[in-house]
Amino acid sequence: MASWIDRAIFYHLYPLGLLDAPKRDDWGDGLEHRLPGLQPWIPHLVSIGCNAVYLGPVFSSVSHGYDTTDYVEVDPRLGDREDLRGFVLASHEQGVHVIFDGVFNHVGRAFFAFRDLQEHGEESAYRDWFVDVQFGRQSPAGDPFTYYAYEGNFDMPTLNLQHPDVRQHLFDAVRTWFSEYWADGIRIDAVEKLDKEFLREICSVARGANPDCWLMGEVLSSDYREWTQPGLLDSCTNYEVAKGLPSSFNDRNLFEIAHSLKRQFGPEGIYRDRLLYSFMDNHDLNRVASTIQRPEDLASLYTVLYTIPGVPSVYYGSEWGLEGVKDGASDDGLRAAMVLPEDIGTMPQPWLPDHLAKLALIRQESDAIRLGAYAELHVASEQFAFRRDVEGDIAVVVVNAWNDPKDVEFGIDLADGTTLVDRLDEATTVTVEAGRIRVGMSPNTTRILTAARNS
């Protein structure tokens, strides 16, 4: 596990969208140096407490970046090698780690080996680089052969990861990401489609290139333990929380997220020894501001996200409550072009960046929040409380998702007379009496209670 990850708070950038790159580049229409436009975002993300970047696809492709055509050359719609190195170097200089997006299951049709297959047919030296190539039948894309396409999308032929030359090609690319671009880790796409032995090998290659790298996989629905065994990934995307957290607030049913968190991280939790990647939106999911039914829930949603076990992440633009939804099969609405606003008062939720910065500071100052065990203390339809603690450090998070004030009372294993201070409003304190605390909650608010310094 990377030495820096327990303090990491990620900011997810999708450069092709944010930088307003053309949607397609079928013919290599020329080099545009857009990547330097990311550099002003570094001090911004630092200002809201983020210290790591998950950088969406930046290597050559034809469309959305997940149809790779070259694993080491930067997409000419974004820039060149120097532009990417410049972004990573500038990030490192400001204390920000950068992980790349790695797409190993499939490539784009403009990938050199697939083009050779189109040109030379059955005589191609690369015909075995792809899964289930069959001549004598026409593909939906018009090729005189068929092949296995990723999720039926014939713009993305599936690589044969059993082929030693395919593996070597990908391994060499990963080594280049670390040696020439100074990456700090990789988010691996479509992990559930990968052969485990290939995954084990590419993880080994990455750790050999950078022993302090962090390897996180996109896992949609399977058991995260399957992919985080020794020698495999360090972490997975926690889609259960990504979907369940907003859903719980929308339905006013906090039992839903409480059940998930207890199942995942409680005393008998199946992931209690894993540090999963926590988020509520990304380049594939509707933005959280569009998912929720009430904007007043945003503060509590992010407070929970930052205080549950895991590594929290913010998707670019969502720190201002930017909205965005899928339009049929198109994800363009999730991947908007943006420039940093000169006047944040024009943004949908201009108060939210300061809230995130405060959450980040609280998180960094609390070993309990970053590293502590998780235990549920109280749950009702519209109230929820949980505890994080490690080696005497404690944090208690209390949520009121009701439209009215509410006193939330529950038992707690602390000495009578112990005083807890709300880190979000330090004028508010509660004291343990007879093994219980009563927390006065305003409508639609959350408190983060930690032990007072003199208690």
Report on the structure:
- 26% of the residues lie in helices and 20% in strands.
- With 455 residues, it is α/β, with parallel strands linked by helices.
- The strands form 5 sheets. The protein has an 8-stranded parallel sheet.
- α5 packs parallel to α6.
- The longest helix has 16 residues, at 164-179.
Short key terms for the protein model shown above:
3 domains, elongated, six-stranded antiparallel beta sheet, about 25% helix, single chain, about 450 residues, eight-stranded parallel beta sheet, alpha/beta, TIM Barrel, Oligo-1,6-glucosidase, domain 2, Immunoglobulin-like
Short description:
By secondary structure, this protein is α/β, with parallel strands linked by helices. Helix content is 26%, strand content 20%. An eight-stranded parallel beta sheet has the order 10-9-8-3-2-1-12-11. A six-stranded antiparallel beta sheet has the order 13-14-15-20-17-18.
Set out the fold topology:
Blueprint: E1 10-13, H1 15-18, H2 41-47, E2 52-55, H3 81-93, E3 97-102, H4 112-120, E4 134-135, E5 145-146, E6 149-150, E7 153-157, H5 164-179, E8 185-188, H6 196-209, E9 214-217, E10 235-236, H7 239-250, H8 255-265, E11 277-278, H9 288-291, H10 298-307, E12 311-315, H11 352-365, H12 367-371, E13 373-379, E14 383-390, E15 393-400, E16 406-411, E17 419-422, E18 429-431, E19 436-441, E20 445-451
Parallel strand pairs: 1-2, 1-12, 2-3, 3-8, 8-9, 9-10, 11-12
Antiparallel strand pairs: 4-5, 6-7, 13-14, 14-15, 15-20, 16-19, 17-18, 17-20
